[in-house]
Amino acid sequence: MQVIFLTLVVVSNLFFQPQTTPEVSTDNICAPVETSSPTLQYPVNQTKSFLEEDDFYNKLDRTIYEEYNHAAFSIRQKILFKDVPDVAHAFHLKTNHANDRMDLSNHTFIHPNRQVYFLASFYQHDHEEFHKFVVIDAETNTLLLGGSHYHH
C-alpha cells in the first residue's frame, strides 16, 4: 500500500509541478507603459512634456505658419492627433465655414495618442473670408497637415 501511495506521489509531482513565476519588479508594474508599433513614423508620446501653445507659436518659423493680421478668430491648441477632426470641426463651426469632417484614416503612420499642435486662423473682410490651419508634431516640429480656404 505504501509503495502504491509513494508511486502516486512521485507521478503526481511529475505531472502537476507548480509553475514558477518570474520575478517582477514593482517598477515595471507601476510605470506607465508606452506602446508603439515599429511601423509608426510618429509613435505615442502622450506622457512627454512640450511647450505651451503660445510659447510654441511665438517660437514657430513664420514661413511655416502665421496667424492672419487682425484675425477675427484664431486657435492654438496642443492636442492628441486623434482629436484633430473634432478641433477642426469646432473651428469651422465658429467661423461659419461648412466643411466635411476631417478623415485621418490615411494617416496610419501617426499614433492616435501623439501630441500635436493645432493652429488655425480666420480673417473676414467685407465679402471675403480666409481660413487656414496647420497640425504640427509637438516633438519633431514637423508639419503633418495643413490647409487653407478662401471664400468670396
Description:
β2 (115-125) and β3 (128-137) form a beta hairpin. Helix content is 24%, strand content 25%. It contains four helices and four strands; from the N terminus they run αααβαβββ. Mean pLDDT is 80; it is low at 1-34. The protein has 152 residues and is an alpha+beta fold. The longest helix has 14 residues, at 2-15. It has a four-stranded antiparallel beta sheet, with helices on both faces.
How many beta-strand runs? Answer: 4
Spell out the helices and strands N to C. Answer: HHHEHEEE
- Lateral arrangement of strands in the main beta sheet: 1-2-3-4
Radius of gyration based on Cα positions:
27 Å
From the helix content, strand content and strand pairing, which structural class follows?
A: alpha+beta
* C-alpha geometry: globular
* Biggest β-sheet strands, sense, barrel: 4 strands, antiparallel
Number of DSSP helical runs: 4
Distance from N terminus to C terminus (CA atoms, Å) equals: 101 Å
Percentage of residues assigned to helices = 10-25%
Strand content: 25-35%
Mean pLDDT: 80
User: Are there runs of 5+ residues with pLDDT below 50, and where?
Assistant: 1-34
